Amino acid sequence: MKNSKKNYLKYSIPRLVLSCIAVLAVMQVYAQESLSVIANQEGAPTELSFKELKSVFLGEKQRWDTGNKVMIALMKTNTKLGLTVCNKVYGMKPDQMNKYWLALVFQGRVSAPYYFNSPTDLQNFVAQNPGAVGILDERVENSDIKTVSVDGKKSI
Fold first, then answer.
1. Which of 41, 52, 125, 127 could form a disulfide with 48 if both were Cys (CB 3.0 to 4.6 A apart)?
2. Distance set, CA 17 to CA 5, 24, 29 (Å)
3. Distance of CA 139 to CAs 21, 23, 135, Å?
């Protein structure tokens, strides 16, 4: 009995330590990911607080002060960037975020976000649609798009 307990501890503790290291490494990757909020030149302001940003991306703000309809552009939640946005902006897991939006859409309270497979497609959508706003993990050089500062910073 003593040998089996020793063997159990001998193998369980290293596994536990490795599991903790893996979890911390994943959390650090998400924490370091720098995100930029982009918007069409028409509609969104050039600066938002994080609270205002979250309100926009939760569908609580339906129109910009200019009158343009808010059109949310997101990467699909099965992409690395989509997962990062779920965690960092929404504070949700992808399935929680998808359920959140499904509930709002079926209640008729909001229009669903537009989802994209590639950052280029998301960027093109934002450039072509007044009121569109999205989140990317790269800088955008396009005269039809502006970067929205959040709490005075160019990235979140």
1. 52
2. 18, 11, 19
3. 31, 29, 10
What's the pLDDT tens digit per position in 12-35?
555 544 454 544 444 444 444 799
Burial class (CB in 10 A: 0-12, 13-18, 19+), 89: buried
Of the candidates 96, 77, 93, which has an alpha carbon nearest to the alpha carbon of residue 135? 77
Q: Any residues with CB less than 8 A from the CB of 153 and at least 6 apart, and which?
A: none
pLDDT score recorded for residue 59 = 96
Strand (E) or helix (H) holding 38: strand 36-40
Continuous H helices in the chain:
2-32, 50-57, 80-85, 94-106, 119-128
Confidence (pTM): 0.78
> What is the C-alpha to C-alpha distance for residues 42 and 156, in angstroms, rounded to an integer?
22
What letter represents residue 110's amino acid? V
Residue in the block written with tokens 């200019």: 66
Strand-pair partners of 135? 37
Task: Locate the domains of the chain by residue range.
Answer: 1-32, 35-150
Options 3.40.50.2000, 3.40.50.11240, 3.40.30.10, 3.40.190.10; CATH for 35-150 is 3.40.190.10
